[in-house]
Write a structure and sequence with these properties.
Blueprint lengths: L5 H7 L1 H14 L7 E7 L5 E6 L2 H19 L15 H13 L3 E2 L2 E2 L3 H4 L2 H9 L5 H11 L3 E3 L2 E3 L12 H19 L4 E6 L2 E6 L14
Parallel strand pairs: 1-5
Antiparallel strand pairs: 1-2, 3-8, 4-8, 5-6, 7-8
Helix pairs in contact: 6-7
Length: 218
């Protein structure tokens, strides 16, 4: 990490800070810093690892997200609610509740250590289907490969997308958009997938007198 805080930026001048970032980007000199590994407790007693970018990288990621998010939003499915503009967990819960009122049942599932196990090469392949600008693709690769600082030491980040980065939630949705498409094409007649990032709730109808066929394995 570069040790620069938001307070430091405000004291030295926001305009100057942004101007320097712009110059570095245009000149091809921008290089992201490793993310800082921190942990937050989970309800089950385990800890969730987060990767916190420095202020400069968060600013550049936000600018990049503003530009590329509409490109992916145009193709995302309606069943996806997590980390999307004008969508929320409450909306996803409402859909599930409406399903229960009609007599359906819900199976909750989530992908273990999802952000930490994303295949970076596959993710970039999916991104390249919608984004062709080499400068943007280079930025995304740099953020994915910047590495992690933990306990004073650096380690490579060959897999995963740091949970805590500004652009990571969008990339996570790009990765799981394949699941949304696959479900729509193969299983839409059997149930509707309601997804909030890596948490999923496929709605499935109980056939009277029939068995409960597994449509989704955790």
């Amino acid at each position: 990490m570069d040790g620069i805080t938001i307070k430091d930026v405000e004291q030295e001048g926001v305009a100057q800070f942004l101007s320097q970032i712009g110059q570095d980007l245009k000149a091809g000199k921008y290089r992201p810093s490793p993310v800082l590994r921190v942990y937050i407790p989970k309800s089950d007693g385990r800890q969730r690892p987060l990767g916190i970018p420095c202020v400069r990288d968060r600013v550049v990621q936000q600018a990049c997200k503003i530009v590329i998010e509409p490109i992916f939003e145009a193709n995302f499915q309606d069943n996806s609610y997590g980390f999307r503009p004008k969508r929320s967990a409450q909306q996803a819960v409402k859909v599930v509740r409406e399903a229960l009122v009609r007599g359906w049942y819900v199976v909750d599932a989530d992908i273990q250590s999802y952000f930490d196990t994303i295949d970076q090469k596959l993710l970039m392949t999916l991104v390249e289907r919608r984004v062709s600008d080499r400068r943007v693709l280079k930025l995304l690769r740099q953020w994915l490969e910047a590495g992690v600082l933990e306990n004073g030491g650096w380690s490579a980040s060959e897999i995963g997308s740091p949970q805590g980065g500004v652009v990571s939630p969008l990339l996570a949705n790009v990765y799981l958009h394949v699941l949304d498409m696959y479900w729509t094409e193969r299983y839409s007649s059997l149930g509707k997938l309601v997804r909030y990032a890596d948490d999923c709730a496929p709605r499935r109808l109980i056939e009277k007198g029939g068995s409960r066929a597994e449509l989704y394995e955790r």
